[in-house]
Design goal:
Elements: E1 5-10, E2 13-18, H1 29-44, E3 50-55, H2 66-70, H3 74-77, E4 100-104, E5 107-109, H4 111-117, E6 121-125, E7 129-131, H5 134-137, H6 145-153, H7 155-164, E8 168-169, H8 170-175, E9 181-183, H9 188-200, H10 204-217, H11 222-238, H12 245-263
Helix pairs in contact: 6-7, 10-11
Length: 267
């Protein structure tokens, strides 16, 4: 089988690349199987702390392959959530405890937009564009777009994007809160990997527990989410050895000074 998904690991970062450029990385059953397998392998690999997900140029992902949808490929339709399925198990990616950075190198359309939304946060090339064309092709989302897109940009903007099918450019996506950073195209993967390296340098058990709290809290009303955070903090603190706090605090202070010096104006 052709490698429709490429995976490489370096410095505790797994880079996963959708590799069907002739079809703008549209998702058929084979690509989906390989994507899920690559993500699951990175999750299980003790040498990986962070995943970076991108596409082979020129697109990030054009969404589901409509020919495969039309043929009734069960591997695509089996991803529709069941009533008894936990929310954390829905969407195009398997359940992951490790952070996923989406490196959006080009167009992310419909199912590809949902795949981007499944990432924890996004870094976009200046060439990136986003569009929800479900209504234009007569489909409904089932990978979480109607939930995750309003969380990212607000419900009114989400409704506009879904109703019009209009494209959102990278700069506007950043202004709306969908994208964290917009960088020159050639710097996309280096920028994503620099952020991944920052994550690698953190305490990984703390990162994963905090991301779990984000995910679980997003399913609760505001007051209950606050209570969840307090409960997690209490149980977490009970198992932490305080003897290492001072050393870590000093490391944080030193790192902050280094970043401040790097960001200061120079003559």
């Amino acid at each position: 089988m052709t490698d429709l998904v490429l995976a490489e690991t370096a410095e505790r970062i797994a880079t996963i690349t959708l590799n069907r450029p002739e079809a703008r990385n549209a998702i058929d059953g084979d690509l989906l199987e390989q994507l899920v397998a690559a993500a699951a392998s990175a999750e299980a690999d003790d040498e990986v702390d962070v995943l970076v997900l991108t596409g082979a140029d020129p697109a990030f992902c054009a969404g589901l392959d409509l020919k495969a949808v039309g043929s009734g490929d069960p591997r695509l339709f089996d991803t529709r959530p069941r009533p008894d399925q936990a929310v954390r198990d829905r969407g195009p990616l398997p359940r992951l405890t490790k952070p996923v950075i989406g490196a959006i190198n080009g167009a992310a359309i419909t199912g590809g937009f949902e795949l981007a939304l499944a990432c924890d946060f996004l870094v976009a090339s200046e060439r990136a564009r986003f569009a929800d064309t479900h209504a234009r092709v007569g489909l409904q989302p089932w990978w979480g777009l109607s939930v995750l897109l309003p969380q990212a940009v607000g419900v009114r903007r989400a409704r506009e994007l879904s109703a019009t099918g209009n494209f959102l450019d990278a700069q506007t996506a950043q202004a709306w809160g969908l994208v964290n950073h917009v960088v020159p195209h050639d710097d996309l993967l280096p920028a994503a990997r620099r952020l991944a390296a920052d994550i690698v340098s953190s305490d990984q058990s703390a990162v994963r527990r905090l991301f779990d709290t984000y995910a679980d809290g997003a399913l609760l009303a505001g007051g209950d989410a606050w209570l969840l955070e307090a409960q997690v903090a209490e149980s977490w603190s009970a198992g932490v050895d305080p003897s290492g706090f001072e050393q870590r605090r000093q490391a944080v202070t030193d790192r902050g000074r280094t970043q401040a010096q790097a960001a200061s104006p120079r003559d």
